[in-house]
Amino acid sequence: MKLLAVRRLLRIQRVVIRYRLDDLLFDLPLPWFLLALRYVLPWRWFPRKPLDLSRGARLRLALQDLGPIFIKFGQILSTRRDLLPEDIADELMLLQDRVPPFDSQLSVRLIEEQLGKKIGEVFSRFDVEPLASASVAQVHAAQLKTGEEVVVKVIRPGLKPVIAQDLAWLFILARAAEKVSADARLLHPVDVVSDYEKTIYDELDLLREAANASQLKRNFDGSPLLYVPQIYWDWCRPKVLVMERIYGIQVTDLATLADQRTDMKMLAERGVEIFFTQVFRDSFFHADMHPGNIFVSTVNPWSPQYIAIDCGIVGSLTPEDQDYLARNLFAFFKRDYRRVAQLHIDSGWVPAETKLNEFEAAIRTVCEPIFEKPLKDISFGQVLMRLFQTARRFNMEVQPQLVLLQKTLLNIEGLGRQLYPELDLWNTAQPFLERWMRERVSPKALIGNVQSQLEQIPHLSNMARDLLERMSQPHASDPPPPWKKRKDDWFLRLLGSAHLAGGTILAAGGPLHELGHWPAGIMVAVGLYLVVRR
């Protein structure tokens, strides 16, 4: 694995040199000791021809060449226009669905291998030129023999070795960080990388994506908020997925949305409601919500409906995490910072010995300046910096199981800034959360909890019976007492390890009742009797 990581490091270094990314780094206001590195790097000792590319294009092409993990990082960055210059954000947006496709003939061969049939046997029309191409797969438009318009998604070949190399480096860096830094240990980098490893490999299985899409479609069946395309299971395989083709406007195409007079305020508010519904009602949320995967229906622009595709990455919460998160948010909306602090201590997210008053004051310092402000007036960079300072001061640990949720929140918040910067996130989310909390203590919910507890009674009774049986015979599985073992030893030593025909091998020290076959036992007894008689 170390050799694999070294090969990958050399590959990354070549890409950095090719696209002059070190020039972009040293143009930043860095400390003097980091700026001094420019004189140490060997490839900077010789004159280099300038590239006829903008800085955004250089960064995009570099991430594109480095493969899926780097492309996904660029996709996340592309939604954060509040953190990036406009020219870089525009270039990184191309990583969402305009990654260069692989050879179309190879794509056709892969599809035919997976389906076990020729393209013409399954589709009445198949567009060889890809409709779109992303980091993990590309899609082709087609029409089934039965007349349905579909898209065919096929996994890029040769991804696993590249992903394995990147993950090897991430694990090396994570373990090194945990060894040398107490602050890094609070972030649990190894656990985070392990969770990401599972997520990225799951995304390579299109049957899993099809199952996720089917579940999400059921969760929002008939909803005016979200539409999920239909999956055609007969033609889905581990590396090929066939689903309904949708027609909509990409969510970041603000000009087209404005032309059809889309209600942008309602669109942004419905995005927040969809997120909270997925997280708290269903505990099953789309965790790859970059703009390339989200469209807006053209049917009712005055009551806009989202369309979600690419469900390869989904997240869920345990009931415990869901409960703690909901109560934290509810207390936050009420500006009950003491309750927020207490919940963090109770859940183990900060050490139990943390001083409640000090932690409450730190949370108030972070949260109060951003409350009741629209997204456009919130400096995300300052909030993030204060959160890091608070986490370090109070040894707050990152929860690896919430990393996907935090990533989704980044995408949602960045998307909201583009759609409707005047959105009041707090007033939009609070009514939904209050309604969800009320439903949790409603008679219907309580009856459901009682029913689930009753269903556990047979299992609990079996556990109780097994426990009572062990208590009634506490020494049944204990080894024989020493005096009993010594009593049998003289006879077993006399028998030794004689191998009798049709019998067994008697191991020295083994109990007498372990004689394998009774005829052999009789023969041994008769032989001893004759010896004694003589």
From TrEMBL:
Q: How does it sit in the membrane?
A: Single-pass membrane protein
Q: Which Pfam families match?
A: ABC1
State which residue ranges cross the membrane: 515-532
Assigned protein family: Belongs to the ABC1 family. UbiB subfamily. Belongs to the protein kinase superfamily. ADCK protein kinase family.
Compartments in which it is found: Cell membrane
A GO molecular function annotation here is: protein kinase activity
Question: What is the name of this protein?
Answer: Probable protein kinase UbiB
State where ATP binds: 131-139, 153
- Per the annotation, which location comes first and is thus the protein's main one? membrane
Q: Which PANTHER family match?
A: CHAPERONE-ACTIVITY OF BC1 COMPLEX CABC1 -RELATED, PROTEIN ACTIVITY OF BC1 COMPLEX KINASE 7, CHLOROPLASTIC
Any one GO cellular component localisation term in the record: plasma membrane
Which keywords describe this protein according to UniProt?
Answer: ATP-binding, Cell membrane, Kinase, Membrane, Nucleotide-binding, Transferase, Transmembrane, Transmembrane helix, Ubiquinone, Ubiquinone biosynthesis
- The UniProt record lists the ABC1 atypical kinase-like domain at 95-343
What is the native source organism of this protein?
Answer: Pseudomonas koreensis
CDD domains listed in its UniProt record: UbiB (cd13972)
Q: What is this protein for, i.e. what is its function? A: Is probably a protein kinase regulator of UbiI activity which is involved in aerobic coenzyme Q (ubiquinone) biosynthesis.
Gene for this protein? ubiB
Enzyme nomenclature, EC number: 2.7.-.-
Q: In which pathway does it act?
A: Cofactor biosynthesis; ubiquinone biosynthesis [regulation]
Q: Name one GO biological process term.
A: ubiquinone biosynthetic process
Residue positions of the active site? 288
